[in-house]
Amino acid sequence: MPNSSSVSEFLLLAFADTRELQLLHFGLFLGIYLAAILGNGLILIVVACDHRLHTPMYFFLFNLAILDLGCISTTLPKAMANTLWDTRTISYEGCAAQVLFVFFLAGAEYSLLTVMAYDRYVAICKPLHYGSLLGSRACAKMAAAAWGSGFVHAVLHTANTFSLPLCQGNAVDQFFCEIPQILKLSCSDSYLREAGVLVVSVSLVFGCFVFIVLSYVQVFRAVLRMPSEQGRHKAFSMCLPHMVVVSLFVSTVMFAYLKRPSISSPSLDLMAAVLYSVVPPAVNPLIYSMRNQELKDALWKLMTRCVSDAANFQSASADDS
Known about the structure:
By secondary structure, the chain is mainly α. It is 76% helix and 2% strand. A two-stranded antiparallel sheet has the order 1-2.
C-alpha cells in the first residue's frame, strides 16, 4: 500500500475541461491577482512614504498588506500556471510549501486582525493612554507575536499533515494544497492527531473572535456616547472597514474548515477556498481606502507628486535636447 514517501507529486483540481474556459479562468484570476498587487502595493508605498501615516493603525495595516500579498501569491500563480499550460501537477515539496505558507500567512493575518481590534479599542475607549499602550516598541512586539504565532501553527500543521501515510491516490480536490483535502488521502487513523491540532486551532480562533467582538462592543458603546457627530463619523470610519475585513475573513475560513462533510462538494469547496484565499487580499485595500480619508489624501498627494515629477523630468529632457 503506498504511503506518503511514494507520492512524488499531487494533482490539483482543474477549473475547467475546455480550453476556452481555462483561458477565461486564467484571465479572471490574472485580473484579481494584479488588482491585489496594485491595491496592497499602493498601501505599502503610501504608508512608507507619508510620515503622517507613521502611526500604530497604519503600521498594522502595512503588515496586513504584506500578508495579503503573500497569501494570494502562494496559491494563485501556481493555479494560473496550471490553467495556462493545461496541467494539474504540483510536486510533493511544492504542496508542503503551499500548506506551510497558507497556514502561516492566514494565521498571522488573523492574529494581526485581533491586534488591530485592540488598537481601535485603545484609540477610542482609552485615548489618553494610547501613546503609552501602543508605543513603537509595543507595536513591533505585537506584530512580531502575530507573525510568530502564525509560523508556529503552520509548522505544527504541516508536520502533522505530511507525516501521515497516503493511500487514497494523489488527486487533491482543490486548486491549491489544502489540509482537509490532503487528509482525505490518508489511510491511517493517525489523522485524528491532525484533527486534534485543528480543534486546538479552532479554539484559539474562537477566543480571538470573542476578543474582537467584545472590543467592538466597547468601541460602539463609547462611540454612541460621543456628543460630536463628526467624532462619531470619524470613529465609525476607522472601525467599520476593520469589521468588514474580519467578518469576511472569519466567515469564509470557518465555512471552509468547519462545514459538515454531508454538505461538502468539489464546487462548494472550490468556492469557499476562493472566498477566503483570493477575495480578501484583493478587496481589503478597497475596503480600507473607501472610508479612510487620510489614506485617500495621502494616495492623492503621492499621485500628484509622481505626475509633477514626471512632468518636470519630461520638461528637463526637452530642454536638454
